[in-house]
Automatic annotation (TrEMBL):
Belongs to the glycosyltransferase 29 family. The keyword Glycoprotein applies. This is Uncharacterized protein. Residues 1-21 form the signal peptide. The lineage of its organism: Eukaryota, Viridiplantae, Streptophyta, Embryophyta, Tracheophyta. CDD domains: GT29. The keyword Membrane applies. It comes from Canna indica (Indian-shot). It comes from the Eukaryota. It is found in: Golgi apparatus membrane.
Length: 397
């Protein structure tokens, strides 16, 4: 397999490079210098600087961008239907492609189901707000603006502090803990250490009951992806609070249709329910793609152009943990990272028996990123253009 990839036809490489350079955002045009051009032994070594440049260009390429655009346009142009399901237990909000008739299933683009009992969003407002939120997010999503990091204090920390009644200092938290869900936590008894931080961020509603000795019991901020929010929306009042209903939630959007869930949940939610900025999503995506390309190149010896043969290019995504860590960089002076990492004798998640990792993430690349954060943050591309002073980061194994 690997052998075969080394013999990737040179002509094809040139074609791929041409296609990529059309949408490149690099300062210079992509100079193609494959490490291996048919016969590895006779090819010239790649100039390090050109290779760096290639990594930047490839990190900016988004193979799924066209599909995302199409999805968003369809959703923005669709018709809203709202229906009471027979039996009365659920209400549905549906988005149909404009012109498509209910009943013709192919026209259905998004459906939100939520319990008929309990609080309800004001249906007349759902669609205009959905359109506005989705449109704004998508506009921002298409911008590459590392300086969005400078806005996190205002956009994330401020609403949290207002909610908790903390003074509005405009300053970062002195200490933050980002608690990942890796099974390695169960060996550590770091619960008290974690709880000693000013801000404790937990991920994707991982349970803490029964694990406090290892994972702590304090939660200041719950960071979830919108798939988790979607499952919450099936509960009365969008119950999404394993840490208590008072804890603010930050969500990143995996699918544009999930703004429907957001609308419904936000209308019944008592604590802040904040969505990550589209520019922030793009920054995180680019950083992790860069690290994935770089580790791929270093581990396999392949040209980074071949990365797409080994990864699901359109689905590839940073993990929730990675984005929570980057969020902490913008609102904290000192960041401690717990429960990230693997060990052969540890479970994937401390609180579940899930075996397999999702292959749309590249955890090895994310660990390289965390290592650079702790040891040489100045080497991290894109982040160093953000205009922030990267806080000191300590990685607890
Ligand atoms: C390539 O980028 C890395 C950071 O990822 C940097 O440490 C290195 O000096 C760069 N090399 C060249 C030749 O620019
Ligand atoms: C979410 O709900 C809060 C409280 O009702 C409201 O202030 C806020 O504007 C809503 N957020 C969005 C993005 O609609």
């Amino acid at each position: 397999m690997m052998k075969h990839s080394l013999r990737f036809p040179f002509v094809l490489l040139v074609l791929v490079a041409t296609a990529l350079s059309c949408c490149s955002v690099g300062r210079r045009a992509l100079t193609l210098q494959p490490i291996y051009s048919g016969d590895a032994s006779s090819s010239p070594p790649l100039v390090a600087e050109a290779l760096n440049e290639t990594l930047f260009v490839l990190a900016a390429a988004e193979p799924g961008a066209e599909e995302l655009r199409q999805d968003v346009e369809d959703l923005l142009g669709g018709n809203l239907e709202s229906a009471e399901v027979i039996g009365g237990r659920y209400r549905h909000i549906e988005i149909w492609r404009r012109g498509a008739k209910p009943g013709g299933r192919s026209g259905l683009m998004a459906r939100l189901r939520f319990p008929a009992r309990g609080e309800h969003p004001d249906h007349s407002r759902v669609f205009p707000e959905f359109r506005k939120l989705l449109g704004d997010w998508f506009r921002d999503r298409r911008q590459f603006r590392p300086d969005v990091m400078l806005e996190l204090l205002e956009r994330i920390k401020r609403p949290i502090d207002l909610h908790y009644g903390y003074p509005d200092t405009g300053r970062p938290y002195a200490t933050c803990a980002v608690v990942g869900n890796s099974g390695i936590l169960l060996k550590s008894e770091q619960g008290d250490l974690i709880d000693g931080h000013d801000l404790v961020i937990r991920l994707n509603n991982a349970r803490i009951a029964g694990y406090q000795r290892h994972v702590g019991s304090k939660t200041s901020l719950s960071f979830i992806n919108s798939n988790v929010l979607r499952s919450c929306s099936l509960h009365s009042g969008c119950y999404c609070h394993p840490y208590g209903g008072f804890v603010p939630i930050v969500i990143y959007i995996c699918q544009p249709a999930h703004f429907l869930e957001y609308m419904v949940c936000n209308s019944t939610h008592k604590s802040p329910l904040l969505v990550t900025d589209g520019r922030f999503d793009t920054l995180c995506a680019r950083i992790i793609k860069y690290y994935s390309l770089k580790t791929f190149m270093e581990k396999t010896g392949n040209h980074p152009m071949l990365w797409g043969k080994f990864h699901d290019q359109k689905m590839f995504h940073y993990s929730s943990g990675m984005q929570a860590v980057v969020l902490a960089l913008g609102v904290c002076e000192k960041v401690s990272i717990f429960g990230f990492g693997k060990s052969p004798d540890a479970k994937h998640h401390y609180h579940t028996n899930q075996k397999a990792e999702l292959d749309l993430h590249d955890y090895a690349a994310e660990y390289e990123f965390y290592r650079d954060l702790a040891e040489r943050p100045e080497a991290i591309p894109f982040l160093r253009d953000a205009g922030i002073k990267v806080p000191s980061v300590v990685f607890y194994h």
